[in-house]
Amino acid sequence: MKAYINATSSISSQSTLNEENYLEEWIPIEADYHKAVDPNYRDFLDPKMARRMARIIKMGVVTSSKCLEELQNNSPGAIIIGTGLGCLQDTAKFLKDIVETEEGLLSPTAFIQSTHNTIAGQIALLIGCTNHNFTYANRGFSFENALGDALLHLEEGNNDILVGGIDEVIPETNVILQKLGCFQSDNGGVTSSPSLGEGATMFLMSSHQKENSLAVIQGMKTLFKPNSEEEVIESIYGLLVEVGVEINQIDGVLMGYNNSKKDDDKYDQLVSSIFQGKSIYQFKNISGEYFTASAFGCHLATKMIAYQKEYPQTLVSGDSKKEFEYIVVYNHFHSDYHSVTLLSKC
Fold first, then answer.
1. CATH classification code of 3-206
2. Tens digits of per-residue pLDDT, 6-44?
3. Cys-Cys crosslink for 292: which of 122, 165, 208, 301, Cβ 3.0 to 4.6 Å?
4. Which fold has domain 215-344?
5. DSSP string spanning 185-208?
6. DSSP label at 321?
């Protein structure tokens, strides 16, 4: 089932929220991870309401609001969000309260706001949407599961589906993950562990093309713990065969290079085989590595196709391209969760 992307919005470590200066100026990363650039939330939210919201909720509400502008105050047919760890800020607050009260009497507010589905729920409450509302939390496939659900809804005749991927970093998890060796401080070099990131990315999708449609998701495949590179290649070829696209029609490949030698080697293997001679791009130098980073990869591919533009500091190898008909987004999370998504012009 094809999905037409009618709007997309993203908050990342670079200037990706506003159309006017989209990735025009590279912002130095000051934290020891790819910290998302927070907009002035007062421009989008009531100040009193914003003060009561956790940061991840604000990121989700802002990006979804920009997408929903296309609906002119109508409710989306469904709200489907993917998140790996959910609302970490409120989770940490709840656990801290447990310790400080010695497991005594607690306010339920922090617990209620710490659950993964709080993001989708808050968006629905703010816009008064009573339609399908679902959250997927499945590690490296969280966004892919949300996108798969959206494609099923479109196939069933529902339209204007809001789907997104969102994760945040808090100081506590940043320290824990680095001590465990899961991630490393961002220093621009290649190491044994990837650079941690965070962000919020939203899409508004329909089953038919509209005047404002930006790109088309032709299809998607996921692969868990493949036994070999050949199995990954077969999966990619399988997707192309399903949608009737030849490998020589692919104009660009957007990959999840993350400065980790172990992870990047797997991308290099595909570049030297199935994607040999293709223009190779990266997106995690902008988003960093997190459970739903592939959502930002699809967002960047959508922008490249919609505006027929190659963005600075994204080209890894191959010729600089001026026209994009088909773009493959290939990502893997810690070598276990592999996904490939094919996007094209409308």
1. 3.40.47.10
2. 999 999 999 999 988 999 999 988 888 999 999 999 999
3. 165
4. Peroxisomal Thiolase; Chain A, domain 1 (3.40.47)
5. ---SS-BSSPBBB-EEEEEEEESS
6. P
